[in-house]
Design brief:
Residues 565-912 form the HECT domain. Keywords: Repeat, Transferase, Ubl conjugation pathway. There is one protein chain. This protein has a 4-stranded antiparallel beta sheet with strand order 3-4-5-6, with no helix packed on it. Strands 7-8-9-10 form a 4-stranded antiparallel beta sheet. The protein has a 4-stranded antiparallel beta sheet with strand order 11-12-13-14. It folds into 5 domains: 7-225, Methylamine Dehydrogenase, Chain H (7 Propeller); 243-380, no CATH class; 407-493; 515-684, Hect, E3 ligase catalytic domains (Hect, E3 ligase catalytic domain fold, Alpha-Beta Complex), CATH 3.90.1750.10; 800-904, 2-Layer Sandwich (Hect, E3 ligase catalytic fold), CATH 3.30.2410. It is built from 30 helices and 26 strands.
Length: 912
Amino acid sequence: CRSGRALVFGENKHGQLGLGDFVSSATPKPVPALQCRPVVRLCCGAAHTLAQTTTGLLWAWGCNEHGQLGLGDVRPRFRPEQVKAMRVSRCVDVAAGSRHTLALSERGLVFACGAGGSGQLGSGGIAEAEPYPRVVDALKEVGRCLLVACGHSHSLALVRNEDSLRDCVYGWGLGSSGQLGVPRERLEDRKFALLPQRLRLDTSLRVVDITSGPLAHHTFILVAAAPPGDGQHMVAPRHSLRTAIDAEELSQTLRRLVAEHEADGAQVKALTKAVGAAFSSVSVLNASFRRHEGPLGLSEEVSGVDLLKVRKAYRTLVFELKSSELIATLGRATLSICDELSKQRVPTDDPENLCVFLVLFENPLLLGEHRTSLFPGFHLALQRLTAAVLSLPKDSQRLLFGWLKRLPSEYFGRVVDVMQQYVTFTLTQPGQNRSDASAAVLMLNTLWDLNIEMDGILPEWCFHNSTISQSEELQEHYNQWQQQQSLVFSYCKYPFLLDAEAKRRLLYFDSKLKMESSMQELVAQTWRQGLPVESTFEQLLQFRVRREHLLGDFCGQLWWRLQNKPTCLGLPLSVEFVGELGVDAGGLRKECLQLGLRQLYERTSLFFELEELPGLVWFRPTSKYFDKDFVPEDCKAASQLELHSPEWVHHLPEIAGAIVGLAVFNGIYLDLRIHPLVFRFLVQRQVSVAFEDLLAVQPTLHRSLTSLRKADVRSLGLAWSVRLPGATEDTDLGSSGEAFVGPSEVERFVSSYAEAALVGAARKQVEGFVNSAVGCMAVGAAFRLCTAHDLELLICGLPDLGQFKDLEASCSYVNGFTADSPTVRYFWQAVHSMSEVFKRKLLLFSTGCDRAPILGLKALNFTIGLSAADLDHLPTANTCVNQLNLPRYSSLEMTRDRLYASLEHHAGFGFA
């Protein structure tokens, strides 16, 4: 019928209606076993029935006395059963005789089964019963078959000759009534043709179709005038579903209607009714938008659905005609089909029944940008669609998601976007069942795993959900997850939902707990030592440093604490610059850590710049961290400071790691120039590398080793050689003992070489950095939520500054300034004309850090205040609260000059 369902009626004494009984029916009834299947062709024999689907699967039921069902036996079937023998050789055409069956495969081979007493199987002999489909070999030698047809006891095929490229009709079986179109003299006993015989037709005609009937002893051939020349003429295939949706045809129809201004006419109403029937039918959508090229059969890699056609059809329906009635009909159809899928009425025993899910995920009515105004019931459709996907059997889910992960990113991202917006809607709209969000999150979790398998076809931020990340309930979810309440749903079980800012908040919560724990432990230690708590207890991790000796003072004190009092590293950091006024409320500690790390870059040999990645550094494999093993005097001049160890000069990797760890623990951004590979080490808390990591660090070497892996090294006769004094010795790379190098030895060599190039002699330095950083982070359970990319954002902030317009929009003003004050307007004019270098200097001057926070400049809490200083004074800043103080400058030139002067000389309290 129009919706793609198979309807049957009539006699049923052999179960040929497929209803599971023997009751005849005078009214059409759907075949339950074929419901939702994309059936494209039905054929009836005398007492058996055949059904072919859009992907070439063949179903058979009814009388099977002669094996005409092709199921390998002669037992009757009262319900449709798939012909397993045709799963590999997919059907493009099928025909039923009285007691035999012909099936045409997509490779052009004809298969025959059933009764062969009149030679209608084309095997060259007489067979009472053939229960297995057998290839008609005689036709295979002629050419490729295009169409098949069956009469009562005869068979027909249209075959294209491989040499002449002409289409010829062949017949075989019973021909006593002339139904084969060949003289009786050419028949066996003047009755039978045991092998296919060619019909002689006028060469000026071409064959369009051939047909007969299960009770017929005659044949019809539809012909037309042959086109000039000998070119091939393609016969219309019988395996295309008439009700299947064709995007091109639909688009042309709608454009014609729009051009003719018939938007309210009968044609539009008819189209609307057809759209409702088609888009509410699982079988129609399963049979629609098929790719014309490639094999009919589906696999784990190929779904056969052309999603570009799907997107084009939806765009045409929703946005081109702009008919509210048509959109409402499509919305109702979408809700209906999702409801049918959710009630598990769809058989999932074959891939062809899963194509409907790919089509539905492309529906624009399910997306937030259109759904609210066009389809108010979208959330119900999504709820049912999600339930349907999650209720699929594991094998069906694996197949469906296998298709998804092989899609281009724009289609895979569409599915993620649909589910993300459904989660947001469920959590933000009143009256919604929040348990529906958990089902969508489970599906997103599967999509996240697929994304990882495909090496990140989508960036991590596509899976972040801003509603969950900003939720006030996040702390409660974290506590439940931390207490390992496995039966309680928690967002923290799915950390991909949380953006880096949300994870930063959880890390801050962990840090506060760690600080409290460290204080309690220090109190306990003091009591055990019998000392008065008031005189010895530390509430801060206090550093006293001289600006001119910052590297030696800070690193010496830090190493002493690492060695002698690691517990105190869990206290809040506080820094005092000796000889400078000012109390550290956050700004001084930021400046100290940033200056310390910068001096490690500039004054030591701890790092070297990667040749192929300028601006990024890696660990130098050396234990001499100062040039020519000479430690500058300002690094050794620390005798007047307490809690200082001069051994720090031999442990710079650990010092650098501790600076990073303290920055994370205290929420401070750093200019960390080490290659991002180190963030994965920090997340994994160990140093492990693979050959693939080499591509990101040394791409040229990676290409060379990749070429070596692909080469046929056995043909080169290579051996590993070690040059010794006076001789060259061949050395076996592995334990195989073979004389020459083979693929397994090459693989070991490549892996070992990659590890040596990435860490190798610098492994001690890398491990020292990682272990020290993780130790000083005082990480809790929240750290396990972070990916390497999250950790990079937490340490470094955003790599790009973004738009300073965002900073201006979120800026607040105090001490008499407003957004309309002339000096403020001069200031922003000067800022927007700055280069990126000076913009970073402005951030460093005002906030103590030249990086934008995770959420961008709009989240900086930047403040501009009026300074009481004279006009010849430079601007000042309070980095602890991100406040810039400006005198009331009277012109743009004055504001620009004073601002640039302050940015060029910003070191020291009072300036930064």
